[in-house]
Amino acid sequence: MTNRTEGSLPATHREVRLTGRPEGPLTDDLFEVVEVPVPRPGPGQVLVRNTTMAVAAVMRTLMDEATGVPMPSFVPGEALYGSAIGEVAEAPGGEFAPGDLVEHTLGWREYALVDAAALQRRDPDLLPDPAAYLSQGPTAYMGVVRGAEVRSGDTVFVTGAAGGVGSLAGQIARLRGAVRIIGSTRSQRKADRLVKELGYDAVVIRGAGPIEEQLRAAAPDGVDAVFDNVGGEQLQAAIALANRGARIALVGALSAQLSDSGARTTEIDTLSLLARSVTLRGVALYDHLELINEWNEEFGRGLKEGTLTFPHARLHGIEEAPRALQELIAGRHLGAVLVEL
User: Fold this and answer.
1) What is the rounded distance in angstroms from the CA atom of residue 224 to the CA atom of residue 238?
2) E-strand spans in 206-297?
3) Which of 111, 281, 300, 310 would staple 13 via disulfide (CB 3.0–4.6 Å)?
4) Which of 131, 113, 123 minimizes the C-alpha distance to 36?
5) Using one digit for the tens of pLDDT, what is the confidence trace for 123-182?
């Protein structure tokens, strides 16, 4: 039976720590589930009982000592971090009360001690499922609306279309008036699901032949907007098929983030971009944080009306968090990957 502190709080909880820097694919021995005392909040702090956390591809990058992304690397011997939602357990004074639904970035643990200023209050009635707050929809929405500037009548190409971002980006592009949406993924099984379940018109498959040839067949009239999650050959193909005035949003770099070869560059014909007045724009959510609440409103409305869906997989128990990240990187799931704690 679990020991408990004053009130209803347990005496201990579990967190997942990084044991070392990976050299190649992720393995189980890189993670350690540790039982530690439940912390108690001081002034300006809030104790949150985490209910659900998300894993994301960038977490593989953050395991390296030097990452090239504007986020702190994970530290061996310490708990990892990432998006989570939960309920306030203790809040000595201030604006939060026990039971409030909140979002923060101290996932990978069952209880989180968070500075009150770092908490985001969430409306439990806005989304049909509070776990949907952990979607990567804000990034997808930003890339479609601000990055690729998708317009009515566009043909849109979304790379990495089966991931947590891409599975929503195609749906958002359709709502913005796109008439043809093409995705990319790594398997025929996922390609079939993208067409049948998420409204993609065609899908190119990595490993099924040159991406440019597949994209040319799927978009004989070229592409007007590109939502690029991947880089590499897929970005090169998008540029080759870009119509005059096309907008290409660089939202992710999975070909570099998940590469074991260390290759992190994509060769681009800049003269070709100039000749067709193609816009190539890198966009990151930390420059557009005001879109998060706007997206949540859109998402809640779309989920309730049936115009949007939230593709995701759920694993159960904090001990499954390492496997969740490994399966995400291996491409085992379509959409977001969440862990219920």
Assistant:
1) 10
2) 223-228, 242-250, 279-282
3) 111
4) 113
5) 999 999 999 999 999 999 999 999 999 999 999 999 999 999 999 999 999 999 999 999
Q: What share of the chain is helix, strand, coil (3-state, %, to 5)?
A: 30, 30, 40
C-alpha to C-alpha distance for 49 and 276, rounded to whole angstroms: 53
8 Å CB contact between 54 and 84: yes
Amino acid (one-letter) located at 251: V
Strand partners, 67: none
Other C-beta atoms lying within 10 Å of the C-beta of residue 277: 11
Strand, coil or helix: 219: coil
Instruction: Give the model's confidence band at 321: pLDDT under 50 very low, under 70 low, under 90 confident, else very high.
Output: very high
Name, in order, each residue with C-beta under 8 angstroms of 27's C-beta and a sequence gap of 6 or more: none
Tokens encoding 254: 């999975």
Summarised one tens digit per residue, pLDDT across range 208-221 is 999 999 999 999 99
Residue 291's identity, in one-letter code, is L
Cα–Cα distance for residue pair 59/54, rounded to 1 Å? 10
Give the span between the Cα atoms of 211 and 96, in whole angstroms.
Answer: 51
- In one-letter notation, the amino acid at residue 151 is R
Size of the chain, expressed as the number of residues it contains: 341
Question: Per the structure block, which two tokens stand in for 15?
Answer: 């967190």
Residue where the block lists tokens 């070909």? 255
Residue 111 identity (one-letter amino acid): Y
Q: pTM of the entire structure? A: 0.90
Residue type, 274: L
- Give dist(CA 242, CA 234) in Å, integer: 12
